[in-house]
Amino acid sequence: MSKSNVLIAGAGIAGPVLAFWLSRAGMRSVVVERAPGLRTAGQTIDIRGVGFEVVRRMGLEELIRSRTTREQGIAIVDASNRKRAEFPVSLPGGGQGFTSDIEIVRGELVKILYESTCNSNNVEYVFEDYITSIKDHGDRVEVGFAKGSVREFDLVVAADGMHSKTRRLVFDGQSSLRPLGQHVCYFTIPYHESDGTWARWYNAPGGRTILLRPDNLGTTRALLAITSNSSEAYEKLDVKAQKEAIHKIFADAGWEASRVLSAMDAASDFYLQEIAQIKMEHWSKGRVALLGDAGYCPSPISGMGTSLAIVGSYILAGELARCKNHQDAFASYESLIRPYVDKAQKLPPGAPQIANPQTQFGISPKPPEALGRITIYIRKPSPDDDDDRKPPLRVYIPAARYYARRFPLKGPFLNFMLSTPIFANRATQETIIYSPSRVYILPALTDGRGKLYSIARLIATGYASFTAEEMHSSKSIDVNTYFQSSAVTGARVPKIDTQRGGFSSGLRVNVDSFGIYGDEDMNDDSDEYYEEDNDKNNKHHHTYDKPRHRNSKDDSSETTITSTKKTTSVSTATKKSVPHYDHAGVNFTLILEYIFPYPQSKKPVIGINGTSPGPLIDVFENDTVIIRVINRLDVPTAIHWHGVRQIGTPDMDGAVGLSQCAIPPGHEMIYKFQATPAGSTWYHGHLLEQLTDGLFGPLIIRRRPESYSDLYQSEQILTIADWYNIPAHTGLVPYHYSPTNPFGLPPPPDAIVVNGSFTQSLVIPANGSEVIRFRVICATAFSMFTISIDGLRLYIIEVDTTTTIPYAVDSFTVNVAQRVSFYVNLTELDPTYNSSGTPSVYIRIQANEAVYAQDVPHFIPPYENRCYPYPTFFTSLYLAVLSLDSTNSAPTYAASSATPILSNVSPPLDTNILDARPLIRNADGIPDSTHYCYIEVTFGADSDGYGVAFVNNVTYSSDANYMHMRDDPPAGFTSDLYEPLVFQMVRKAGQLAIPSPLLQAGNDLPVIQSDQNGHYLIPYQAVVDILINNTAGGEHPFHLHGHNFWIVSSSDYPEAEKLYAGDYIQRDTVSVPAGGWAKIRFVADNPGAWFFHCHIEWHMADGLAVAIIVAPEQLLTNGYNIPQSGQKQCEALQRFNTTYDPVLPSN
């Protein structure tokens, strides 16, 4: 439609952006504006997410940044102008708060957009006129204007705001304006020095809000908001009456109300509006389309109105340029922008009322029930840290006691001792102690150097106690016995923060520094934070007797669930599978080469035997598997067999730098290992983000007989993956690892693919089966999902490689690298669907959008380059079709219809994953732990400003690491391109320079130590508890190579440790909650070098990993020798690298 003539109603933001891109595509546009000139008044607005990316593509980024308000953030203040909370421009982790880094006065942005288009030969502006009539003749549109002229256009686009008169002419009665119970007036007032560079937000009782935002023009933008359930139509009053009403409402509001009201009287740009949203089923009719607020106003509360207008304009123009007719263009425009709109219009629960409270209680939490003190004994660190310590320092700590139901602080909080009720507030370092009906808050302690410490952390490390005699805390703490009602007084005693709750500052103590073991201060990588083991009968055994089935009537004997059918129909839903015949030695050949499976995309995909995902490898438990991998790529490669124990074969794990050297191009490698444990798993590339580019496939290890095989007639495999429009290493790495991305935000995917198919193109036939087993494999690089099937309950029977007692759920969550098996019974289909006669139902695979740091994925269609990758725009909901009959037809109901709530169903698996019980358990329970290891996950910038990850303050760095992003690590025992760790374990056994486990003060268990390179040495047969403390804002799926582990508890379910003692669920990948923790236990019975890492591809690349070195001497005792084939492969890789110049991201 390159010759189209388009009329645009509205010269605000959406109209000029649309005109800009239409002009780029060779189309002519006329922009008509009711006002006599540009509307240069208005408040500050911001540009976020892909809205910013569109501005960048317009070439306007530098100009817009030069005119921003430079607002530093927003502060919540009280009537005395004291700050109660601050929200800076950039929040930790790189997200955006109330203030975007591009905050600009609306009129300034309007000028920039107008100036970018007004001189174009393809753009005409008409001011002081508007549309009065529209007649759609099918092949053209006849438009009448207020000044009497009549003109014809190919298309009309209404971009004239929330109260669009153009929309009323065409869509009369079809729009839905949804008031949100708030009226807001805007105007400009003179700047005062108290305005500073921060926006200030003040709440007064009665749902009244005053917001003052200094601009870059020497004035201050004022906003007065009224939130109530009143039906008062202030917007229908004239300006004089509106101002009088505002005066009356805010007269006693306090703070700077009198100043603001006085300035309002003289303001010529005063404007009042009702806050509402526009929701419509369709945004086009015939040759007329709606754009921005005219079609989908999200309200100012969302903060997304400007970005929606910009992105919508870009997409609409791009589709008009791409499609041959307006019908296809409008349909595609709606399909592409709808997910973005739905997300923007999804306001927080209770908004806007929750941000504009009606009462003083809503503005300020009630004071504590009681103020008192608790005596804490603190050990001053001695210079040499010997045992001749001075008597502990007694400190009276002020304590605030709250009723539990009125506790003002919001978690999650950090728990250093998992069985105790003592927690730390990560932000303020306050200590929170729970009792059955009360909650106590203790302030942070400040040492002589001004550093804050939580008392919870000091207790955990043995530096503080409730008694003078015992310098470590007991599990059974009754804080009520330590609380005294007499308050602590003095000039240095912190005050209660009546607005936020808790204390306003820390308490200074007479200690120069809480150094730990010679450290200057308390570092976050300390290994001392542990859970005490008070079980004096701990035998430290880990011998496993013959397992029993839980369904057995006699616990002393084994009962097996046998199959009543001799054959099972298995449909893998992958393109093809590799058959095998000889169970003594099962042979496969995998050829790796680039393929182009999607005609719409020019992106090369790493294919395995010509497909991606690769072919199904289907074997039986304890089979000897022999796999020949031929590398026909132009870069080295390796394949990891996820979840396979590799007992006795530590060099077959496929982890480059730990178990092998990479396979050079033109070479091949024979992998030979025992197929154990049984279960649903997968294989994937373990080098250079090759998983992201298609190097993965399903691996099923079957039991003899398979549990529950008598319950289902067929099975399906769903292998879920992220799709990126451009290659990972050459295209995405420079974006991810650069100074412009200091927080290391991972690039969000462009689409979801399942079994190689994009949404709504995958059909799963029932083929006459009443009961179907599904094996879900989350083979993504970044995304996690919630899985459900319309009208059916899901019976979980396997997590990773652990068979469970059937566990009925409506839905469950699966994180990166995890697997879940379930079956559905089609005879249980909800009557709502049976009565509709639908031939099929939807399988819903819903991505968790919270993991994506940006509003929508970064890579939107680059229309300006005339390149249209497939798919075009991210949709977080993937829909597959489960065909109930033989027609394979789509469901007859709308995909937007919600699944009916099923009755008598347990909570979703993602809520309490630990509630899933293993089918087979050890008769003697789980072995007691003999060692302890603390893992703390943090993110930050390295010395060059690049975002990296840290485990106990160490970034796992190696030239053999995923992205080859950093310099070589220090010399010594470390993963290396040409000598993997497992080879060094044999050659340097006993000389690895890794500290042995250390029994530290206050610890009942030896603590696993590490060297400076992130290697942890673990004795043979040690039973290790690992506490993973995730300080980051997102969930992290941690995978341990070479072992399975028990999930003991997590911050989401701490009571699981006691509730399921001795019967924990076992997995190989655990999802550690955002800002929380997980505790796992494993037996180090498999000598070798094993990765323990976050399985998000981008985080592994950032160095979020450690190497677990298990029993080097035992490896020799077991008769392991460095294979000659492995050494030759390392030599071949070295020869290849002398002639190969890889494409690396620029530093």
From TrEMBL:
All residue ranges annotated as the Plastocyanin-like domain in the record: 600-704, 716-828, 1012-1113
Basic residues bias locations: 538-551
Domain of life of the organism encoding this protein: Eukaryota
A Pfam family per the record: Cu-oxidase_3
Feature: compositional bias, Acidic residues: 519-534
Natural source organism: Adineta steineri
The family this protein is said to belong to: Belongs to the multicopper oxidase family.
GO MF term list: copper ion binding; FAD binding; oxidoreductase activity
Region of interest (Disordered), residue spans: 519-575
FAD-binding domain sequence ranges: 4-336
PROSITE patterns: MULTICOPPER_OXIDASE1, MULTICOPPER_OXIDASE2
Coiled-coil residues: none
Protein name stated in the entry: Uncharacterized protein
The keyword Oxidoreductase belongs to this UniProt entry's keyword annotation: yes
Biased composition (Low complexity): 558-575
Entry keywords, A to Z: Metal-binding, Oxidoreductase
